[in-house]
Amino acid sequence: MPESSAVATETAYGSLVVRELPTAGPGFPRPFEPEGLVGGAHSAVSMSTAAGRAPAVLFGRATELALLDGMVDALIGGGTRPVLLRGASGVGKSSLLDETATRARARGVTVLRAAGAQSEVRLGYSGLHQLMHSLRGTGPRLPAAQQEALDRALGVTHGAPPDRFTLSAATLALLCEVADSGPVLLIVDDAQWMDRASAEVLEFVARRLGRQPIGVLAAVQTGWDAFLDRGSFSETLVGPLDAEAAAALLEARYPALAPATRRRLLSEAAGNPLALLELPALLSEEQLAGRAELPDWLPLNERLEALFAARIRDLPDETRELLLLAALESTGSVRTIWTAARGGWADTDAALVPGERAGLVRVDTRGQLVFRHPLVRSAIVQAVPPDQHRGAHRALADALVAEPERQVGHLISAALGPSEVTARALENAAHHASQHHAPMVALTALRHAAELSTGAEDRSRRLARAALIAGRAGRMGEAVEILASAHWEGASPEDAARAALADAYRAIEGDGDVRATYRMLTHALDELTAAERPETGRPPLGDLADELLHVLMLAAAHSGRAELWEPLASRVAGASEFTRLCFDAAGDPARHGRTLRRRLDRLLGVLAQDSESRRYTRLRLAAGSPGTAAAHRTGWRRTLEPASGSGTFSDWATAVTLRGVEDFHAGRWDTVESTVPEAVARAEELGHRTVAGRLKSLLALVHGARGQVDALEPLYEELKSWTAARGLGTAEQLLWQAQGLAALAHGDHDRAYRCLVRITPAGTFRPYTPLAVASVMDLVEAAVRSGRTGEGRAHVAAAEEAGLAEISPRIALLVAGCQALIAPAEGAAPAFEAALSLPEAEQWPFEHARLQLAYGRVLRSNGSPDRATTQLRAAREALERLGAEPWAERARAELRAAGAVPDPDPGEETGPVGLTAQEMQIARLAATGLSNKQIASQLFLSHRTVSTHLYNLFPKLRITSRAALRDALKQAGLH
Hints:
Helices cover 60% and strands 5% of the residues. It is mostly helical.
């Protein structure tokens, strides 16, 4: 059977003769078929082109085409050695033959073609008839004996079979006569199915070509022998497409595939072009778009089944049974398959041999059974009836009793109806999977265990546990579906608590009301606590109660409201040290600053031996809160990795958010800007609005720190109403910090102060407000620069009293920076030196550079221009790397004021005193007495931008007030 390979043309397949078939849905057309092809029917995309049209281009076949072009070159030059292409079915040999024929004809070569067919393999001279019948009556007459032999072979005349030598000589003679008028190329596809008689004639011709301009090009399937003398041919292996070419082919034909579907198809097709083109057509629109799960074994159409199952039906029964077990056992474990098979190991070994000899399967060096192509598995599974499927799954389940996680799928597939025995086995497997960080396996097992349950109480328990796992994993739609499928009236307090937790995860991460969720969890915790009393006879449920407390903390943390935190304090008092630490770190680090780091160090040492991944996640969330971020950097990185590899959305979201926080503090702002939008899109697509909001808040902080008001404002407006409607006070505080940073960047210190005191008043740290700790230096700087030195000093005193510097190295830098900012002139330099020389201080480049800028300003004012220049240059370079342009411009202005000549801003023309064109325009308008708002209106700028430009141009003109502008401009000749 001739195969095809995929092609692409420069004008959307415009050079192909194609006919579109009915589509599988929007964006997913069925494969199309060429019309009027030579050499047999093709499907998908063919290499055949219409007369006069440019040839198509094959994906990933540049090497093979170059070899075949060289063959045609040699043929035209006077002769070439015959070429045999060998490759698996569907790999694209036919397309290479088609393309070679097209190119050869375009160069004046006469092309004669034939294609072997299994139905004609015993029909003598059927292949020769395909090759030579077009020459009958068109060439010169041969000697009578040769003409008679050829006519008999081609069925023109009747009589006894022709003498083989006479016929072969006649064929060669006729080809040589035709070649006198120009080169001739014989092309034979599927040569393994060519009849022996024709193959022997072709061999005769191939061995006697010499310098004749006659070429032979044949293709044969791997694993089959054609009736050809391989010594006469130059053999070339046509392998599967490489990963890049396979992906390009699939993208060209099915551009709208969901990423997960695309990955699965690429994996299953394993570079086979025919499979790449035909498999998508067998999936539903929902599966193609990623809205429905793909089956364990992809369906095959008749063509693919014939391709990959051709040798299966001829195998002995025991071999087919063994291969079915291997197809259903996804790991290929020989031990598991042999244990599940009937008979002893010796019998199983013997049963494998026919499959190996057929080239379907092999045992690799790791002791795993490997199929020659992934779709052979699908072909085996599709070829047997359902009862054999179930029997094989039962055998595999029995063989995997000691490995419950691997047993789950087989238990499910072997079940026909309710069975408490199977349900209990699945529930046990789910427990084992949960303990070994395989939540999706546990979820699947519990859902099916519930379906197979024979009692209502057992079903409710299994559904409650499944819903909780779905909620933890962030699979909100599945959690809702499970919760809706159960009847919770009369449920036990444990099951009710699990259901409440599942609903809480959904509400907090989705669009639910945080306050209503808090009330629901509080009720569930009260009911569970009552059930734990000794007089009830129930066992303690500490882990479940702990989880309720942690999710209550999560709700309180999102709310940012003390009235939700305060009732938890008494409940947490009797909980584990782990829960108390999470409460103190995430809830109110300012009240526990002196002990947090020591307690965190101790607990991280304990958790290094803990197999419970949820504890890692909870600790990451607590240690990564705005007030205590990077409290323990070594443990932080070690505990970050298990989440990112666990395979659940919730753990992914935790890892992405905390990495984003770390990237922000470490000054990797470009990374935040490049990675966060994609993560936001993924979160919003899955309905996780809270995750998306947290990530957008990170973007807002970057825009604020960079002074990018135009980017910050629309994001602020988008998030402001959403956070208020859901009661997300912490997210709202992050927006105020972003606004405060933007105002600081543009020198609008009064506005910065008003924004930042929305988080916490100066001189105190509002209870249960972790962001008050993280924004401590922002507030002190805004206070000092806006003339509120008393408020700034009061805030520093409060920070010192709370022992904030002991929380983490980063918070220590912020507190030391605050102390330097409020220091009197005579003591400022030592304070700045002390702050800037703290261990790890440079790991937080934004705060470090701001302190260098402030220190340089102090040194310049104190008459130390050389020392000031050192600090200011370092600040400018760091701020430029961060992309914090308003801050960097302020450093450049200070450098000018210190008498240094800063590097010019690339591409920016400046005036005689270093003013940019816009600064000059603003200066002239300000000199006329216009206010910032009036200037902004005239120049279509924001008044904050005008304020920043005025702040930056004053040092350039060596003035300190607006009143001196007119005279300074006149003196510089700019008025």
